[in-house]
Amino acid sequence: MNVTDTSITPTDLGGYASEEAESENFLSYPKGIMSWLVTLDHKRIGILYLICILTAFFIGGMFALLIRTELLTPGATIVDADTYNQLFTLHGAIMIFLFIIPGIPAALGNFALPLMLGAKDVAFPRLNLMSWYLWLIGAAFTVFSLVNGGADTGWTFYTPYSTQTDGAIISITMGVFILGFSSIFTGLNFLVTIHRLRPPGMTWFKMPLFLWGIYGTAIMQVLATPVIGITMLLLIVERTLGFGIFDPALGGDPVLFQHFFWFYSHPAVYIMILPALAIMSEIFSVFSRKHIFGYKFIAFSSIVLAILSFLVWGHHMFPSGQSELANFVFSALTFSVSIPTAIKMFNWLATMYKGEIVLKTPMLYALSFMFLFGIGGLTGLFLGSLAVDIHLHDTYFVVAHFHYVMFGGTVIAFLAGLHYWWPKVFGRMYNEKLGAIGAAIIFVGFNMTFLAQFVMGSQGMPRRYYNYIDEYTIYHHISTGGSFIMAIGFFLIAGYLLHSLLKGKRAPANPWGGNTLEWHIPSPPPYYNFKEAPTVGDPYDFSELEWDDRIEGYVFRKAEGSA
Amino acid sequence: MSHGHDSEQVGHIVPLWLLFGVFFALIILTALTVWTATQIDLGAFNIWLALVIAGVKATLVALFFMHLIWDKPYNGLVLAFSFMFVILFLGISLMDTAENMPDMYEGPAPAVATE
Amino acid sequence: MSKKHSSDGAGHAEHPKWMQHHFDTPSQQFASSKMGMWLFLATEVLLFAGLFCAYTVYRANHMDMFVFGHQFLDVKWGAINTCVLLFSSLTAAWSVRAAQLGQKGLMIALLFITLLCGGAFMAIKYVEYSHKIHDGLLWGTKYKPAGHAAEVIHGEEAHAAGELGGAHGRVDEGHTEAEQVAGIEAAHGEGAAEAPAAGGDALATDGAQAAGAQAAAPAAQGEGVELPADVLAIDVAERSTTLPAAIGPRGLVPVAEEGHDDGHGAGHHWEGPIPDNVHIFFGIYFGMTGLHGIHVLIGMIILGWLIYRALKNDFSPEYFTPVDLGVLYWHLVDLIWIFLFPLLYLIG
After folding, report:
1. Domains along chain A?
2. CATH architecture of residue range(s) C34-136+281-345
3. Of C291, C342, C280, C211, the residue nearest C65 (C-alpha)
4. Which residues between 196 and 235 in chain A have a beta carbon less than 8 angstroms from any beta carbon of chain C?
5. Is the Cβ of C231 closer than 8 Å to some Cβ of chain B?
6. Which residues have C-beta within 8 Å of that of residue B106, sequence separation ≥ 6?
7. Exposed (0-12), middle (13-18) or buried (19+): which is A455, by Cβ within 10 Å?
8. What is the structure's pLDDT at C294?
9. Cβ contacts of C39 on chain A, cutoff 8 Å
């Protein structure tokens, strides 16, 4: 089964020994649309997720383009003010709840996690499938709000506005509630999988760092997400039954709602970014052809980040009427977040140092990640300091900051991971040159869009505004221009990836020379993952791997025990 | 009924005397908490006493009825963690709201304008 | 999560049908399921955390609201319900033991008793809820003390004169403005916007002890809009002013009605002005017990499903995971009630 130096033939079967064996790959076995819709195979569920979240990303992206087009000129450009409010609300809600949160864990993680672990599946395959269906139902509720009057509260649903405004708040909050459970079940599944389904030899510190990151993410998904559930339920009863707990007219406390909301939503930010950091740890090591530097530090920093994420939620609420004591404490705690993040960044830098850096598409994304996430993280320090935040709060500076983290961090990492595992998932290579061009276009477009927003934000342009004074016009022009460039980049990426599915070259088992377990099996993997329990070694030891021109991929130098 | 597939015993069989013992302890504690709350006035300390009794009852249920004492430690850790995070959530929210100064300005909060 | 172990691994002759193919041993499967369940229980704990947080915050900052409100809860029913749940936990734990020992009949009987206890719990909750609903002791905008509770809150010498608010003619007997803190039931979302002038004026008049002023009429008619019955005229201006003197020492004492006085031992009689926004206490009460009640119902469904599976001979001493997990869920419901009972019923 395994590609070894001796048995290697210039095969186009992605590492399968024969065509007969290849029919066992998970994409083609079993056949039929129903076999996909009721599949319990984590790889197939990963693909189902991938299709869905990319659709959500497309919709959310279209909304973003509409928003940017509207902001091209002061006053009305293409839509009216109410529509604009609904657009940015849905852009936020869709991107966050439908795309980024499930993005890396549920789509890429579902595919890669059991393979990297050496398991046959996740611990609860049915629950996994149920998560996906919950995602679909939640997505339906969320998108239904669009035709049901729209929601115009922003994705944060702050009371008392959200209890009073017309529109489909109930539908969208119900959607968020359901999506929360989808996310919880994914996290729960991964936690149990990592704990209980490790094959012999896969000790905690032999686990690839991707798994550590997903583990930290899953902790947050399990412990934080229920709180958004109850928050959304309370908001619904507040609207339908006049509950009064968050309504100042009834003696309720709207700031309490913000505490509820951010107790989830700050960890949620880390649910979004931690898997991105996890992907980076894989890519930097593989594409530097060098052992990851500071394995244990990176591993533990993921867990530390997961814990710290619960301690800093109040920094979203500095000007909300939160008490001075809480402001002070949250501001101080916020700075501590930079420690584990910086540990990761410096360890990646040290990994690249004196490595043989291979500038393939995933690595290009990884490098732009480092740049963009660096900016996003450092501007976070501005916003974390109490005094500065009073000036910058609710301006475009904040918008730019979290887009640098969420987009420059998570989406770029998602693209990196997508390109990294694409050959493994589909068994096809995409066009490397177009990949590099796509990465460059995204990088340029992204910086154009959001650097301008830093500038206008620091000059006082408030976020979520429909209109603005002429002084900001130039920045809005740059920003909107950048967003169009990004759109071109995404269409290019979509184009060559789809093309690769049909016409792409057959991928070898190991195109990048990774040593985590998924690269030990053919591409695409057989439906049973591993015939026997795999032999587990150091996931970042590349000394056994060498490039083979015949298959244009890496092979393991000496035949190892069958994997 | 039996498959006889694997002789490995799953789970711990709790003796009946222990189940009933825990049950009666729980009932007695319930009576105790009602009694202390209604008959003894400790002022602000009453709530803490009630919470301690509730905590003991919860521990009994978790350890014996829910088998945690014989279970893998991780499961107990999960429960402990969840309680820790509840306390964290409550604690910090309380830290903030306790600092609220609703009387800083005279008079009631203005009514929220509904357009 | 209890899962159906139907056909997985059916093709493997060496596996029993409940054994899933991606696990190596039954004990690995059991441990995984159990860990998954515990993680799920942790999410349940955190789901309730939101309500506990609301409870803590409001109680710490508005203790009076809680002390005042809790006297309308009946310790007797709460204590009985606690015992019912504790007993159901005993039978549930025992049913796991029976499952482990292969005592199928006993297991089914115990699960059934547990289910019945759940039913009894819900029946008692129903009694309590209907009391509250009857007395109008509800949350937020629905808070309109009526009948007995109104007497307690508004004082006994209340006159029929001060009827306030019912847009659809609901009469608040004994609701004399002069005798209560203005705005005790200034509970009104939309009302705030729609009838402020009318209501406010009316209340102001009432507040001046103009007993007999028909406050309701102007408030109810002021706008052709159809107001929900619960929308009361708001009195923003009067909200935080207090009229303690008018209330009198005995107006607020919970009236020792027959069968209603148990549990209210020494030191529980309310003295002083009625606190603002008591409806928040009832909001939290209904939120907590309501969410808990939903969990009891879900637990009962799970128990019913377990009984069904047990009757189908699905369980054996080697495989009883669904029983174990379902019972764990039931215990968690009990666990939460163990905290809810003193927090809601036994506020000192």
Report:
1. 19-556 (1.20.210.10)
2. Up-down Bundle (1.20)
3. C280
4. 196-197, 222-227, 229-231, 233-234
5. no
6. none
7. middle
8. 96
9. 188, 191-192, 222
* C21 interaction partners in chain A (CB closer than 8 Å): 120
Q: How many CA atoms lie within 13 A of A440 on its CB side?
A: 8
**Pick from C1, C187, C283: CB nearest A124:** C1
Whether residues B71 and C34 touch (CB distance < 8 A) is answered with: yes
Per-residue CA distances from C6 to A283, B58, C3, C10, C20 (Å): 40, 35, 9, 8, 9
Cα–Cα distance, A179 to A182 (Å, whole number): 5
First to last CA, chain A: 8
The count of C-alpha atoms lying within 13 angstroms of the C-alpha of C316, restricted to the half-sphere facing its C-beta, is 17
Residues in chain B closer than 8 A to C334 (CB atoms): 61, 65
Task: Give the span between the Cα atoms of B70 and A291, in whole angstroms.
Answer: 41
User: CA-CA distances (angstroms) from residue C119 to A319, A535, B91, C285, C295?
Assistant: 48, 54, 35, 20, 12
Q: Are strands A545-548 and A505-506 parallel, antiparallel or unpaired?
A: unpaired
Q: pLDDT tens-digit profile of B45-73?
A: 888 999 999 999 999 999 999 999 999 89
A491: how many CB neighbours lie within 10 A of its CB? 11
Query: How distant is the Cα of B69 from the closest Cα of chain C, in angstroms?
Result: 14
Nearest CA in chain C to A248: C189
Domain boundaries, chain C: 34-136+281-345, 157-256+269-276
Tokens 């186009």 belong to which residue? A12
**CA distance to partner chain A, nearest, from residue C32 (Å):** 6
How does pLDDT run across C32-79, given as a tens digit for each residue? 999 999 999 999 999 999 999 999 999 988 888 888 888 888 899 999
Which helix (H) or strand (E) segment holds residue A429: the answer is: strand A428-429
Which among A73, A74, A69, A103 is positioned nearest to A88, based on CA atoms? A69
Token representation of residue C329: 């869920």
State phi, psi for A214 to the nearest 5 degrees.
-65, -35
From chain C, the residues in CB contact with A127 under 8 A are 1, 3, 36
Q: How far apart are CA A270 and CA A113, in angstroms?
A: 19
Per-residue pLDDT of chain A (563 residues; tens, 9 = 90+): 444 444 445 455 678 877 777 788 898 888 888 899 999 999 999 999 999 999 999 999 999 999 999 999 999 999 999 999 999 999 999 999 999 999 999 999 999 999 999 999 999 999 999 999 999 999 999 999 888 888 899 999 998 889 888 888 999 999 999 999 999 999 999 999 999 999 989 999 999 999 999 999 999 999 999 999 999 999 999 999 888 889 888 888 889 999 999 999 999 999 999 999 999 999 999 999 999 999 999 999 999 999 999 999 999 999 888 888 899 999 999 999 999 999 999 999 999 999 999 999 999 999 999 999 999 999 999 999 999 999 999 999 999 999 999 999 999 999 999 999 999 999 999 999 999 999 999 999 999 999 999 999 999 999 999 999 999 999 999 999 999 999 999 999 999 999 999 999 999 999 999 999 999 999 899 998 988 888 888 999 998 888 888 888 898 876 554 44
Pair of tokens at residue A226: 């229920």
Pairwise CA distance, residues A333 & A261, whole Å? 19
In angstroms, the CA C263 to CA C252 distance is: 17
Helix residue ranges per DSSP H, B40-72: 45-60
Determine, for residues B10 and C348 on separate chains, whether the beta-carbon distance falls below 8 Å. Answer: no
Q: Which of A312, A119, A97 is nearest to A184 (CA)?
A: A97
**CB contact (8 A) between residue B95 and residue A160:** no
Under a CB-based contact definition with an 8 Å cutoff, are residues A483 and A68 in contact?
Answer: yes
Task: Tell me which chain A residues have a C-beta less than 8 angstroms from the C-beta of C287.
Answer: 234, 237, 243, 245
